[in-house]
Amino acid sequence: MPNTIKVAAAQLSPVFLNKTKTVEKACSAILEAGGNGAKLIVFPEAFISGYPDWVWLIPNSKGAELNELYIKLVENAVSVPDQATVQLCKAAKKAGINVVMGMNERNSETSGASLYNSLLFISERGDIMGRHRKLIPTGGERLVWAQGKGDTLKSYDTSAGKLAGLICWENYMPLARTAIYEGGAQILASPTWDKSPNWLQSIQHIAREGGLFVISTCMALRMDDIPDEYNFKKLYPEGREWVNTGNSCIIAPGGKILAGPLDAEEGILYADIDLQQIIAAKRMFDVAGHYARPDVFNFSVNE
Questions:
Q1: Which residues contact 246 (CB under 8 A, 6 or more apart)?
Q2: pLDDT at 1
Q3: pTM above threshold 0.90
Q4: 135-166: pLDDT as tens digits
Q5: For the chain, give me the number of helices (H) and strands (E)?
């Protein structure tokens, strides 16, 4: 594996609650990034087929409206595997690129009617390496997404380096981060809905703490991206242009921002990362190595 590798963060908007068109857009971005020499591309949280921002706007007493939106969300969610994953895998193989895809995922192993906030990991050979389900949805998200389990906290050996993922505020969970560090991750994919300055400061700290590269990818979503048929659009302040402006970025182990933040536009960010920087960063502080102190602390994950 070469020390220097090009990686990408896809700050794109989905075709809102339209699985077919969103997957087509994702495949185009995968081919574009691969054509530009990237060995890894990370998509936003819940990219297929859109972040359910209505959970912050509609009270739970509005059951009929919430039911209608939830049905639409489930119908446009991904089952692993399904035709959407087949298309994504074919695009990854054709482009020769590893993919981390944020998605609404159906619990197809049981009822098929509950959802997880998930990441799908696809290799450059077009194989599904695994998936990670968000351990705990935040606030209003709990009305939509179920809780993931510890068995999806994994790192994957890829042609871009050892790769892991945590979703949005999972990155704030010290023990979830410890599981990633213990797994030897060199690159942390951190798809998110959070565009705030506090988030950017936190992921810079995580890059320093873990001695790894962090790819923070957030969805850029305009008001116009939400079809007028969805009445919750009326609950936003009048004149608002952006639901989320993105602020995606790629961060080095020392906390330096290598690309981005990209604000209020769609685009694919690229950065060349040097994996030897990880070794240099861990000379002084290796959270899972000489700084771990296993004689003092015990750590385990219930898988």
A1: 11, 195, 218, 219, 220, 261, 262, 263, 264, 265
A2: 63
A3: yes
A4: 999 999 999 999 999 999 999 999 999 999 99
A5: 6, 14
Options 27, 45, 154, 249, the catalytic residue: 45
21 as an active site residue: the answer is no
Q: Which residue has the tokens 């995968």?
A: 30
Contact present, 166 and 188 (Cβ < 8 Å) = yes
What pLDDT sits at residue 103?
98
Query: What's the mean per-residue pLDDT of the chain?
Result: 96
Task: Count other Cβ atoms within 10 Å, centred on residue 1.
Answer: 10
- For every residue of 115-151, DSSP letters joined together read EEEEEEEE-TTS-EEEEEE-SS--GGGGGTB----GG
Buried b (16+ CB within 10 A) or exposed e, 145-161: beebeeebbbbbebbbb
Out of 168, 170, 249, 282, the active site residue is 168
SS3 270: strand
pLDDT at 2: 66
Among 85, 102, 89, CA closest to 43: 102
pLDDT score of 231: 93
Is 90 in the active site? no
Residue 249 designated active-site = no
Domain limits, the chain: 4-281
Q: Is 254 helix (H, G, I), strand (E, B) or coil?
A: coil
Instruction: Report the C-alpha gap between 62 and 117 in whole angstroms.
Output: 23
* Tens digits of residue pLDDT in 76-126: 999 999 999 999 999 999 999 999 999 999 999 999 999 999 999 999 999
> Which token pair is 233?
């659009």
Q: What is the mean pLDDT of residues 237-247?
A: 95
Q: What is the pLDDT of residue 120?
A: 98
Structure tokens, 220? 């850029």
Quick one: 4-281 is in which CATH superfamily? Carbon-nitrogen hydrolase (3.60.110.10)
CB 167 within 8 A of CB 119: yes
Catalytic residue among 39, 134, 154, 195: 134
